[in-house]
Amino acid sequence: MAKLLTGLKPTGEFTLGNYIGAIVPLVKMQDEYDEVYLFVADLHALTIYQDPKELRERIRKFIAMYIACGVNPTKVTIYLQSENPYIPAISWLLECTTQFGEASRMIQFKEKSKQNTNFSVGLFTYPVLMAADILYCDTDYVPVGIDQKQHVELARDVAERFNHKYGETFVLPQPYIAKAGTKIKDLKDPTKKMSKSEENPQGVITMFDTKEEITKKIMRATTDSEMNVCFDEENKPGISNLLNIASVLSGQEITDIEKEFVGKNYGEFKAYVAEIVACKLEKIQTKYEALLKGNELDRILDEGIQKSIALAQAKYEEMKEKMGIVR
Ligand code: TYM
């Protein structure tokens, strides 16, 4: 009865990086697992101020985008994290099982707290809420990009400690990192990850970009001064990133793409990558528009949250019982 779960935080636009890092592996694996969960991590979004009106719109857009990307709502339990009151309750019980030192070692916390000295307490406890997301339904695998790997490992450590202190309660989860999608890089600065909150939008492809925008961004992507389309992440991060993107979206092996471009220039290669990305996103966007107009989304979310609440409530009661907070 293997279970798969992942979530995306609705801050900024849904990027090609999110799609390749989290959604593509989930779509590929959705039929192989007994149970699959996918949610919008809207509580996590609040760790950094969000405009309420924009956030509300984005949450709905994310759900429509999940399904447009090929997530099958009859197989996958889809829900909003904030509609399950037991998840923050479980998070509190886990906070009391997490050490301050281990939470302080989280790279994302260190980076984000450096960017703004007035950061919230929520930014610090963020990975514990993420542990609650993962542990409440006994998840085995968590498809994520490499930037979230440390958080999934923390969830595992916290689960192990809880099991040790209070008795077997949680399944120990593992991150599932798809090889090609580990980290899609910013097109302008291919040493950094493509990120929704990036200040330079020219380096980021969102799932809502038009063909013209995609082509412009890819044609202007930073590469190198050679004329050789070959995969070498260290010395040719820009070209390697484009090869990764083209390979995941077309299903071709990187070595086959390299062969196709022997003796050709970067302009031709970029035009080819742009065509693959635009073609893929165009199909997704057509489905997305239809979903946003219909009323199917609410039905899907209503069903999803019921299942999620039932599981989380049972886990919460079990935890409380084991921890001794019962009448
Ligand atoms: P978030 O919203 O930052 O990112 C969502 C998913 O997309 C992956 N990702 C990328 N993968 C490859 N290349 C990139 N450039 C790239 N950018 C983002 C992320 O690794 C992630 O898998 N904390 C999580 C949300 C979350 C969650 C969870 C995930 C909350 N609870 C429980 C899994 C399980 C986050 O902020 O992801």
Report the C-alpha radius of gyration, rounded.
21 Å
Question: Approximately how much beta-strand content do the residues carry?
Answer: 5-15%
Summed over residues and divided by their number, the pLDDT gives a mean of 95
Find the structural class using helix and strand composition. mainly alpha
The count of helical stretches stands at 13
Distance between the termini: 34 Å
Overall body shape: globular
The largest beta-sheet arranges its strands as 1-2-3
Small-molecule components bound: tryptophanyl-5'AMP
Known CATH architecture of the largest domain: 3-Layer(aba) Sandwich
Low-confidence stretches: none
Total beta strand runs: 5
CATH topology of the largest domain: Rossmann fold
CATH superfamily of the largest domain: HUPs
Biggest β-sheet description: 3 strands, parallel
The residue fraction in helices comes out at 40-55%
CATH class label of the largest domain = Alpha Beta
Order of helices and strands: EHEHHEHHHHEHEHHHHH
Please indicate the count of domains. 2
Short synopsis of the structure:
This protein has 327 residues and is mainly α. The protein contains 13 helices and 5 strands.
Account of the protein in words:
- With 327 residues, the chain is mostly helical.
- The protein folds into two domains: 204 residues, HUPs (Rossmann fold, 3-Layer(aba) Sandwich); 89 residues, Tyrosyl-Transfer RNA Synthetase.
- The protein contains 13 helices and five strands.
- Helix 4 crosses helix 7.
- It is globular, with a radius of gyration of 21 Å.
- The structure holds tryptophanyl-5'AMP (TYM).
- Tryptophanyl-5'AMP binds next to strand 1, helix 1 and helix 7.
